[in-house]
Batch of 2 targets.
Target 1
Amino acid sequence: MTEEKVGVYICHCGNNIAGTIDVEAVSEWAATLPHVAVARDYRFMCSSLGQELVEQDIKELGLTRVVVAACSPHMHEPTFRKACERAGLNPYLMEMANIREHASWVHQHDKEAATEKAKALISGAVKRALELSPLEPSRVPIQEATLVVGGGIAGITTALEIADAGHPVYLVEREPSIGGHMAQLDKTFPTLDCSSCILTPKMFDTGNHPNITLLSYSEVEEVSGYVGNFTVRVRKKARKVNTDLCTGCGECWSRCPAKVVDTVYEAGLGYRTAIYRPFPQAVPKYPVIDVENCIYFQKGTCKACEKFCPTGAIDFEQEDEILELEVGNIVLATGYDLFDARRIPQYGYGRLANVFTSLEFERMVNAAGPTGGKVVLRDGVTEPQSVAIIHCVGSRDKNYNPYCSATCCMAALKFGHLVKEKTDAEVYSFYIDVRAAFKDYEEFYNRVLEEGVHFVRGRVAEVTDAARQPGEEGKLIVQVEDTLIGKQRRIPVDMVILMAAMEPRADAEEIAHLFGVGCSAAGFFTERHPKLDPIATMSDGIFIAGACQGPKDIPATVGQGAAAAARVLTLISQGEVEIEPVRAIIDEERCSGCRICNNLCPYGAIDYIEDPGVSRVNPALCKGCGTCVAACPSQVITGQHFTFESIMSQIEGLLYDVSNGHETYAEPAPLETA
Amino acid sequence: MSQPNGTYAFYPGCSMGVSARAYDQSFRRVAEVLGLEFQDVDDWNCCGATEYFTLNRLPAYSLVARNLSLAAGMGKEDLVAACSACYLNLHKTDSYMGKYPDLNEKVNRALAAGGLHYDPGTLRVRHLLDVLVEDIGYEAIGEHVTQPLKGLRVAPYYGCLVVRPESNYDPEYPTHLDDLMRALGATVVDFPLKTHCCGGHMTQISEETAYELLRRLLANAAEYNADVIVTVCPMCQLNLDAYQSEVNRVFGTDYHIPILFFTQLIGLAFGVAAEDLGFGAEIVPADEALKKIGQEEAPKPRTPRRRDKKALPMPPPLS
């Protein structure tokens, strides 16, 4: 080995590291390691002064390797790589030893051992640094077009922002119309402005934007490629309506004899026909034929829609269309599903007629909904005299979802207000805590309190129609422990509204797999960083926005949708994207073409080349995970930056007896018996 | 899940031979029809019922563990109890011994005095209802039905014990007994109090408390026009049956709802003669109710059309 010069930099991280680890002693010790030319400790190595220290030493002492012993490389690897680059050292010759998360934070009770461990980590890092090779990142151009998946308020916001900036967008929506859950809502908290009044203009703009290609009634089937260059296959489901001819006049659905319960837009509370447009403001305005419920498709006769269509737009023969899109970035805005309240049988939904879900009630109070905005019982005519609103149905409950669904408290307050506004009913709101964080929310809570909604603190045990006392006959009785007065209460009411939780989409896991993003334990898509990057995912070029990332209300969703657009625009404006050189390389001379690695690659980055019969890694797709490196029976795949030599050296360095010299191994300590 | 040879170890418990003779008789007849073999645990002792565990825990667990140990010696995988209290105690002891090594050690020290030993997890403790539902299934039971219980309105009463341990069924609102009764052709009424308490031994300690609990159950069943209440537990059956006239006297009510074991109804549907199923032992006579079997229910009056049109759709049941 030629004479390498290593600089070791030990960060105090304020007291985060120095409070536990004796950084001066570590620094003195590190200076005596073979090949180490200099070792320094500093209060904040990531500060500009700390970085300058590194840069200066590279220039003045001619360092050929740098080891920074500080926090996790997730935090500051890019920082120190840049510092090295500025000083003329290849950034891939810098190695980090994580003595904060891996030593000082986890061994606060044992300072001596933490110090020894820091030494071992540094010893390993120095050994590894000596084996590193200089690498150069490659650059690929970025496709200008963006794919947005999901046409709710999140996807609409993202699509409009990108399109307004002058770049093409494909907006894919599964349902016949964009609008999502927001289109189903009546009023929005806390201002009580009408949901569709604020949403419809945005839907219209989306449908008419010259830069937006709206693919409604469509689903993404396959995704391949990498940041800047994704290829996406989209199935455009057959509407059975020729949209070039259709004017959206409505003659077809007014003549359709097949009536079915609309479980999507009307949340099961209303009906639609087999050929239908989900709602009057739908974008696009064209109807679709629901083949499963269409009399013609099921029985072979009817065709009423075709007979009455004035433009001959009905096309029973229409087939699904497959589109191939080339996009540079993808934004997932797939939204949420409502918790199925039938899963809590003791609350009676689906069993007791007058128990409703929050989304059903949302449709009920909507002037365009099945009851024309009247608050009535399931019989459709009787106005309730008393209404119970139950919070946290399927959320904050270890039997279903442990998380807080975030929006239901505010929606419950809104419902209380609306019931009071539209009826003379007494309203009881059963809560665990009322969570009214964010701007103007607490004020709204106070307003609803003043309006006379009764708030009862306690989780409801059951909703039953089994009357026990006089006054309970014919009512729904809400049994609850009122935890403010410490008593069991039975409150008879006419109507119960269950504030059902927001859950990940039923197929969220499949979607995550399709796009190569992760899901949290609860099933929501995982962001790159919970605080500093809630928009990107671990897959470059794929962003998330709205409730698919976690329960959130409209303002937060819109904020995240716009943020995702900003991230996409940043990449587009860069024109090309840098690709990390940390990847696998196959020595084609020695590759036997066995193809074992081909199917093991989780990113589909390895292709078999028929002529000359070897496997080859696509550098843009490879993430450098090392699966193929370990699996290759001929050991001809090299993981750049993680070579066998560098890993073995690091392990060797870690195992040295750091308290007694440098390159000897410690006697294993006898195992402590419990 | 089913036993390879369809045989189970069976823990009878103290009710089966005495107050719940009808349960014992009917369950053995039903087992015969279904080709199931239940082998009684030899030299079994009391399970401690509901009280002993609150008085003196270690002897209570040891008492139950003795039964587990004897049953484990029979070489079966499953230990079945027909009584909900027996089931709960056996299940609890097995699972707590597994969970708490300290308890396991102490209990086994006690067992050792009698030359016995039990390793938790050796047996799977199950209730008879679970065996019929899981191992046989609704469909297979339905295939044995020769006399469907058509027209009989049944209130399925689970009681509070059978749903307690980590069971496969919803502990708040179970439906497996409902589905089993449906498989026999019976009409199952919604019975919101299906898992509420029957009063247990409170009839001996505080009559007032027990009678109020019993009244609620009877009133609820009557409200849904149930012809019979069907139970899976000797304690529930005894309380509802034996104290029904007392409830009527105290509250001025007039309930005459026969309380039957679920195996008695299964037997009837299988075409087994009533006298072989222990009928006649019940205090509130079941004759009148049983006469309804085979009768069509009177058609419900149609609600006016105009109202129907305005009515909002109900969500379908959860599949």
Note: Chain B is about 45% helix and 10% strand.
Target 2
Amino acid sequence: MNLKNALRAATALALVTGSAATAETITIATVNNGDMIRMQGYTDKFTEATGIDVEWVTLEENVLRQRVTTDITTKGGQFDIMTIGMYETPIWGANGWLVPLDDLSEEYDVDDILPAMRSGLSHDGTLYAAPFYGESSMVMYRTDLMEKAGLEMPEAPTWEFIREAAAAMTDRENDINGICLRGKAGWGEGGAFITVTANSFGARWFDEDWNAQFDQPEWANALNFYVDLMNNYGPPGYATNGFNENLSLFQQGKCGMWIDATVAASFVTNPNDSTVADSVGFALAPNAEGVDKKANWLWAWALAIPAGTQKEDAAKQFIEWATSKEYIQLVAENEGWANVPPGARTSLYETPEYQEVPFAKMTLDSINAADPTNPTVDPVPYVGIQFVAIPEFAGIATEVSQEFSAAYAGQQTVEEALEKAQAITTEAMEAAGY
Amino acid sequence: MARSVTTQRKILNTAAAWAIGLLIFFPILWTILTSFKTEAEAIASPPIFLNFDWTLENYAIVQERSNYMRFLWNSVIIAGGSTVLGIIIAVPAAWSMAFVPSKRTKDILMWMLSTKMLPAVGVLYPIYLLCIQLGVLDNRLAMVVILMLINLPIIVWMLYTYFREIPGEILEAARMDGATLKEELLYILTPMAVPGIASTLLLNFILAWNEAFWTLNLTSVDAAPLTAFIASYSSPEGLFFAKLSAASTMAIAPILILGWFSQKQLVRGLTFGAVK
């Protein structure tokens, strides 16, 4: 009898505490990178202020992409907030899969979002995702090696200068490669890099009638230049190097130059991880002689609300908190200005303390130099710099980048790779009805 | 009479066995070692083998960031549940195929196996939609059933081959002594096939533990097992190899220990029937 009573009491207690604890909980799908993980650490502050609990589902980028795409296309309703990028946002927004962020509060100051970011995360002028952090790409180089080579990096170098500097810095005996660049297959890895390189040579993915352009001389120029540069001055096996591999090489002092995401700047200048932290300089991404487009991309990891969530208000509250000026202030107070999420807000770059961060100005200049609606010399029918914001692109570009990587690895010639790229793209676009 | 083996040959064989064993184990050893390094040491080139400052920092960070016990508990339930459920269904199936085969038994076995030849992603959308309809996304029971269905062909095949090694005459004798079908299955067949069933159990438990497609795609919070725990530490933009290694070590530790303790059972089961 006693046992029964005890059980009853326990059940009642569990029910009471259970219902007391059923405050609203939102589930957020996100990627594993430094800024996002840092934010998870501050979530308690959000819960304290609003009473809303937060469950994090952190996944590797590619897994996340597959996971949230499955969920949103089937209206699975697993997440109240999704971390998505500039590629997905306009497409999903156009499909009506995302809640428009057109009623954000006045204090949030939506006009403070950097214009390039805002336009990349909008469809038809409506914002569908709020940028948590943004990035472009730029040249990071070793100031000591540059000095030793007797050269001076201009603020806006050309590819010709990059080649000259790479040649001068390469020191095979001491295991120093003049330049490290992405070559790994995948639309977001090497595919992104070669696409911006092509832009800076005046090449484009499609003409205004959606015809593939790999048979044009600009693409051949870009690809030949890249392969030639990397074969002569790049690290061995560069065809399989992505962001992480190059970061590792650069941090260990094995690269003279590295052209990659602006967020890498905070890694390579962090003395805990990098052996070359005190001798890194920055410059704008290069362009070919006579072409006024630079090889820099634009990307943002942004927070969006899938249409159909039951917790839209709570989700909006979270997004306003996580992408606010106050959040930036919170991180700055606790971890210093170099660790705040960059590239999202104009006001950050007007903050005097932040202007002292060595890579702040170059990051902003790089972001401002990127125009997603006008990525290359000739007009294009698409939006996006290192990608083409159509649903078919991820599949096509992954295949194309595999052909390119095969050329980098010496398994086929540049001409063969371009021919195959042309065929793959033409076929896929015809099948998709363009 | 056993073949005489010279000491020299013995040493050579032992050395070769150790070398192969180490080679196979090396990636796991490297993961474990990396988990005790700092991030900078983890990517050092040339790699540092043992001569580094051992630190538990990564484990502390992982412990602080993730609720390991929740993922572990989900893994135990999903892997354990699907394996046990699978065995319960597969024993009668394998029994009928092994002892009362029909003209079509071979075809059925092949057909069952053929379901394994379809890439999982091919049925992701149908299964995802089914789960939404039934309201069982991110549900442990649903994961148990799905992983059971995925591993069932393998379980049936393994049990079938073990059962075939058992002489049918023994079962016949039991039947002549008046054993019912249930008694025949429970008291005659199962005890004789224990090594086979045990190794099937273990192997499928390991397969279900490591299954990383369905567990990643159909779970988010409540039912997420250790595969999701590892995936949350992998990053294409940032070098977190030491933390990833710590998470991996924590995820494989239970299964590694289980494997160690049941080594004998596993080997016996896998070679069962090879030596009469």
Note: The two ends of chain A are 76 Å apart (CA to CA).
